[in-house]
Write a structure and sequence with these properties.
alpha/beta, Glutaredoxin, 3 domains, 15 helices
Length: 526
Amino acid sequence: MNFLRGIGWGLGAILVALAIIVYGMVPEHTRYVLIVGAFGLVLVVAGLVLNRDRVVAALKGRRVRAAGASAGYALTVLAVIALANFLAARHHKRFDLTENKAFSLSEQTVKILESLPREVTVTAFYREAEPTRQKLEDLLAEYRYHSPKLTVRYIDPDTHPGDAKRYGITEYGTIVVESGKNESRTNTPDEESLTNAMIKVTKDRERVVYFTTGHGERDLSVSERNGLSLLKGELEKQHYTVKPLVLSQGVPQDATVVVVAGPQKPLLQAEVKMIEEFLQKGGHLLYLQDPETDPGLGNVLSAYGVAVRSDVVVDKVSRLFGGDYLVPLVPADGYDEFHPITKTFRFQTFFPIASSVEIKSSLPTGVTATKLAQTSPLSWAQPDNGELKTGHLTLKEGTGLKGPVPIAAAVTRKVDQASPPPTQAASSKEGGNKTTAESRLVVFGDSDFLSNGYFNASGNGDLALNVVAWLAEQEDLVSIRPKTSLPRIVILSPQEVRLYFWSIVALAPVTIAVVGVGIWWRRKKL
């Protein structure tokens, strides 16, 4: 009994504290922790009961009243913090202060998440100790922050083999993205793979992009510098179906976008007519014309208020980047800030040997045209008198069109039709037999920029993908530039090391201790 009255309650408090610490470190041994904690709690209660006279007397003392007041202040502060935390959880806002926004999603991914048409479930099959699991959890936390329609689950195949078998999981690190009856899988836990998977499972209609052939156009299957295999691969990653098109056989009904990429020979009149009719019915065309070529589509372009000039763009700024005068550069501020293709696009792009694109001063009825990209003020477009073929172009600054020089244009035109093509019908407004579609046309004075040799140069590839996305009426489906982790190394001199040691490691704790002792001593004197 004397033991319980003397030190039993103190020993009990130690056992309770020890039980809490052990539970935090080894939560799987719950039974033993509860036994120790319960025994300690019994000792504390017994000690307080046996010393009840001393406890009551102590509670009536001045020190206890002062301690009670301090506890009241502390509880008030804790209540305020708890309320602030509750409000922050309900109306939270996150900030990424890293230099390259390493912990933020791209604007394109955010737009996709905010416009998800239906619920999406992400199931990640990762072991608890998987090295890359934490990285995935952090990334998916960002995804969930931007969309309430996203559900995330983590399943350990070792502890839940039934779920792994039901999904047919054969390797760790598999991520399954589901929406409705659609499913996509990836083993790459990065933003590009996850976002593309979400796009795939939420897009029900097939988007087909046709590239014309037979006139010397750039080839989809060629992996050399002049080919378009990189562009094709990126389009397929974003779940477009990419096919070659022989115009003499007509434009297929399932064509979402038709691309004419740098033809070197003129199109036949019948083929020109097919392109014209495709646009008149609300089709969407990407047209890229190189200098010193005339594919014969001038009249078609004129009907939409645009033209590719017979000139060549010269840019002095390119020299600053180690390029040639004939590789004009579109600076980060050279894009139209309102058009969907470029309003969030702020990357430099390069256009080797390009012509300027003209927008007529008087546009046809129903046509809207935008200068999509322009070169720097230090550039100009001079007439090409056949000098390019000789390889000796004489620079004539001050002649022709002064910079900034438009190098790309985007055009729309409202089209009334009785029965829109299948690819347009889904986006046309219902009502009566007559619907209003929209022709879309993007014109570039160069096709080199999207070739394999230049596709990965700065923002070239991203711009090409953005253009196709807009033409396919999928403004949210654009390329995602992966973020790079920059090294964060701080080099300190010996003097700085000593300064930080004494100010942070030594001075701060000592200051706090001195202040605490001073307050204790003052209260003791009262």
